[in-house]
Design goal:
about 290 residues, alpha/beta, six-stranded parallel sheet, binds guanine
Length: about 290
């Protein structure tokens, strides 16, 4: 039986730490932390995510400024809003919820956000800083995975870490962060040959391929730590599952994240931490 990695508990601890640090910033320096959250259109999933981000801001004492724009908002209008927020000295972080409507170029929007306010860590400058090991914002989900691993006592130094998935938001930064922890990292993807054999060699297996229950016990070494980044609704039900077939893998793994309640809650906790960091860096308090 694998030990469950409790993302709900660990994310709560992280949010409590951010809450204390935000309160201390106010008490000792009179500084508020402010996040601008932009939602374009009314995609139901995005509306839920943005609502959860605003709730987490409220919990941690971060001020959230909400910009809910209609679906028809033009790229130019969105760029103008970002430009205003970049200049606004009261705003520490800017988050544009993705995906954006089809007529807006996401890459252009990501690049328009000032790297100093890029709390999602998606700007090419943030990605570059991460790659060369310079302080900057790290994409919240992979940063959350590292916290889960460290706070669960998983040794990464010299470990064989395998990441399945190579997205810009999760797979690639995940690989770099594991490398930073001195793991030996393999990043796999849809063209990888012998995926099963490679996964079976992993001490730490991070799965982010976006395919429900893709990884079963035959991919997992006895005692390995398995982190499931996926989240899917099981057809016709209200139940959720991940990219890992939990029932199959749990008896084999040493430690495993559940879905829900594993990686998911860590993303928002990571965002809160990035907002705090943005304020600290703005005021040269590092
Ligand atoms: N859409 C899905 N995940 C994310 C995220 O982490 N940040 C933003 N901005 N949009 C998202």
């Amino acid at each position: 039986m694998a030990e469950l990695i409790d993302g709900k508990k660990i994310s709560q601890d992280l949010k409590d730490e951010v809450k204390d640090k935000v309160a201390s910033l106010k008490e000792h320096h009179g500084i508020d932390v402010t996040l601008a959250v932009i939602l374009v259109g009314n995609d139901p999933a995005s509306t839920v995510y943005v609502g959860n981000k605003k709730k987490a801001c409220e919990y941690t004492g971060i001020i959230s400024k909400s910009y809910e724009l209609p679906e028809e908002t033009s790229e130019k209008e969105l760029l103008e809003l970002i430009d205003d927020l970049n200049r606004d000295k009261t705003v520490d972080g800017i988050l544009v919820q993705l995906p954006l409507p089809k007529h807006i170029d996401e890459d252009k929007i990501i690049r328009a956000i000032s790297p100093d306010k890029d709390v999602d860590g998606f700007h090419p400058e943030s990605v570059g800083r991460l790659s060369i090991g310079v302080r900057g914002f790290v994409s919240c989900t992979p940063a959350g995975v590292i916290e889960l691993l460290k706070r669960s006592g998983v040794n990464l130094d010299g470990a064989n870490a395998v990441v399945v998935g190579r997205s810009n938001i999760v797979g690639k930064p995940m690989g770099i962060l594991l490398l930073r922890e001195n793991a030996t990292v393999t990043i796999c993807h849809s063209h990888t040959k012998n995926l099963k054999e490679i996964c079976k060699n992993a001490d730490v297996l991070v799965v982010a391929i976006g395919q429900p229950k893709y990884i079963d016990a035959s991919y997992v070494k006895e005692g390995a730590t398995v982190i499931d980044v996926g989240i899917h609704r099981i057809d016709g039900t209200k139940k959720l599952c991940g990219d890992v077939d939990f029932e199959s893998v749990e008896p084999v793994a040493g430690k495993i994240t559940p879905v829900p309640g594993g990686v998911g809650p860590m993303t928002i906790a990571g965002l809160m931490n990035n907002c705090y960091q943005a304020a600290v860096m703005k005021h040269d308090l590092v």
